[in-house]
Design goal:
This is Uridine 5'-monophosphate synthase. This protein has 263 residues and is α/β, with parallel strands linked by helices. It is built from 10 helices and 10 strands. It starts with 7 loop residues before the first helix and ends with a helix. The mean pLDDT is 97. It binds 6-hydroxyuridine-5'-phosphate.
Length: 263
């Protein structure tokens, strides 16, 4: 039987970006390809649930702008949880403006995302200037190599237009900016190059939809059929009665699927 994907240690040694090397290291050590999307409007609740699911995840994805009780002190607590449980922070800001604007959105304002989020993402609608702008903001804070960008190549929602030529243009832009772009938000594998990781949202233990266009695939489908690398799970964990046990279930499902892929 031919192995379909490289193992995490193989990818870690073959990729160039420091953030990606760290991520593969965490995935191997903690045996997890689970990213938890902590989509709550309460920072207090976010900290509480992350304390529980921290041991099972390699990344915490946030939507910092939905939080009503934002404080720098809470960011400090979140960073401490990330160190304690060894996971990366990914602010799902979906930047989508010209370079000069996103540069400020990334580093300034209330949230100062570049100061705490290891990973961010962006739409490619504005062209490569968006990548340059974000990269220069990280550079000005002395964070070159410590911050990385994912490009949104495909989406999970019904009727989205990130398909075909758009997705191809996204792959091209990623390949031309490997010093900062480390992968994709996508629905299936777009590249076999270990310098690019694939993260897939729209994941639940049972396939289905929500009432606002979200479409769900299972961890097994995402990892073994679509050859993605990371499963992103929000409500599947957040709305469960026991987030820790549920996160462990997703971790196991995702990791078993990976083992099946690389054995
Ligand atoms: P949930 O598992 O609760 O449906 O959450 C999915 C998360 O992933 C949300 O935070 C959403 O903003 C994000 N997301 C998505 O659902 N589809 C995409 O194509 C891109 C996303 O970032």
């Amino acid at each position: 039987k031919v192995k379909k994907v490289l193992t995490y240690p193989e990818r870690q040694s073959q990729c160039k970006h420091e953030v990606l090397k760290r991520l593969y290291g965490i995935m191997e050590e903690k045996k997890t390809n689970l990213c938890f999307s902590g989509d709550t409007t309460s920072f207090a609740e976010l900290l509480e649930v992350v304390e529980k699911v921290g041991p099972y995840i390699c990344i915490l994805k946030t939507h910092i702008d939905i939080i009503t009780d934002f404080t720098a002190e809470n960011i400090h607590k979140l960073k401490n949880l990330a160190s304690k449980h060894n996971f990366l922070l990914f602010e799902d800001r979906k930047f989508a403006d010209i370079g000069n604007t996103v540069k400020k959105q990334y580093s300034e304002g209330i949230y100062k995302i570049s100061e705490w989020s290891d990973i961010i993402n962006a739409h490619i609608i504005p062209g490569p200037g968006i990548i340059e702008g974000l990269k220069s903001a990280a550079g000005e804070k002395g964070l070159t190599g410590k911050r990385a960008l994912l490009l949104i190549a495909e989406m999970s929602s019904k009727g989205n237009v990130a398909t075909g030529e758009y997705t191809k243009a996204c792959v091209k832009m990623a390949e031309e900016n490997q010093d900062f772009v480390v992968g994709y938000i996508c629905q299936s594998q777009l590249s076999k190059d270990p310098n690019f990781i694939h993260m897939t949202p729209g994941v639940k233990l049972v396939e289905g939809t929500d009432s606002l266009g979200q479409q769900y695939l299972t961890p097994k489908e995402v990892i073994t059929k679509r050859n993605s690398d990371i499963i992103i799970v929000g409500r599947g964990i957040m709305n469960s009665d026991d987030p820790a046990t549920t996160a462990a279930t997703y971790q196991q499902a995702g990791y078993d699927a990976y083992l099946e892929q690389c054995s």
